[in-house]
What does this fold into?
Amino acid sequence: VTYVSERQSIIDPWASIKIDDYEQLFREFGIESFAPYVKAFPDAHLLMRRGVVVGHRDFQLIYNCIKSKKPFVAITGRATSGPMHFGHKMVFDLIVWYQRHGADVFIPLSEAESYAVRGVPWEECRRIGLEEIVPSLIALGLEPTARIYFQTDMLPLLKLAYTFSRKITLNEAQSIYGFSGSDNMAKIFFPFIQVADILLTQLQRFGGPRPTIVPVSIDQDPHIRITRDVAERFVNEYSFVKPSSTYHKFLSGLKVDPETGKPGKMSASDPESSVFLTDPPDVAAGKLLNAFTGGQPTVKEQKEKGGNPDICSVFEWLKYHLIEDDKKLSEIYNACKSGNLVCGDCKAHASELIYAFMRDHHYKREQARKIVHKYMMHS
Ligand code: SF4
It folds into this structure.
């Protein structure tokens, strides 16, 4: 298992990690399988029904709210350190799904972390937030009932972070995050801002205590654990409901990892490893044409032996983002395995699909620029 690099039993939310064995990880951290909920919704999101959302904590609370149409919150943050790629898109696809199922949506833009931990200048954080991230979120389908804010605009958030920090010791934070001596103090304080982001939504002025879902990739679990812990410690003062979470698998990058020979990780600092929501459509299409596949070295061999969609990054992009119809996806899977589909045709199809998606997304982003203000919340 490569999720722990140097420190056993610690997931580092700031590191670029790769998980080989989700089950082992879930056992170690007490995360439950999402499988029982896959068939619970007739219109389950494709990431749910295709096994990409794999784990959860306390999802039953959210399930009950959706079924009985009771209020609940869906929240996820976004760093303002750069444009969003398709790995980030997965979280917001889920958030939009929850909003359509009755969730009260909050999106904190964590420009304080982007500045203090990643060194992005304050003005640039604002520009990225308002000109790149929010228009993309609107283009992905977020409705204006969502409340988006910059963390430093929210005085109640900062007060809450200070309140929580009183009851967590450095040793406790250390046991969750495994800080190193060279980490700066902003990185050590930042988790309290994250905790406050999630629990702020349960203050009376933001709707009061109610179940809260935080869809995250597994590397963000330390933030979930500390938030649930804080919610419990402050339950007498605030009547918090411990937040629930779901965990989804990472979307592989488009390039091969020379060490494993399999698709590598997406990295915001390597433009060829992923498609960004700000990429021009032809650039996005070109990236998929050059992506790593699970095909055989020659067309002849592909036709004889079939390809391997289970390790193919093109297939993963079709599965996670580009094909809504399950039947169509399974036809591609079977055609690949039986050798009836060759990679050239398959990649051409995927690149046409992403071209069409991006063209539509860019059009919607341009329209969205005019209404960004409708989504922004200030304290
Ligand atoms: Fe991947 Fe498609 Fe090639 Fe199969 S045919 S290995 S799914 S690119």
Observations:
- Residues 1-9 have pLDDT under 50 and may be disordered.
- The chain has 17 helices and eight strands.
- Strands lie at 32-33, 53-57, 72-75, 78-79, 103-110, 147-150, 212-217, 244-248.
- The longest helix spans residues 343-368.
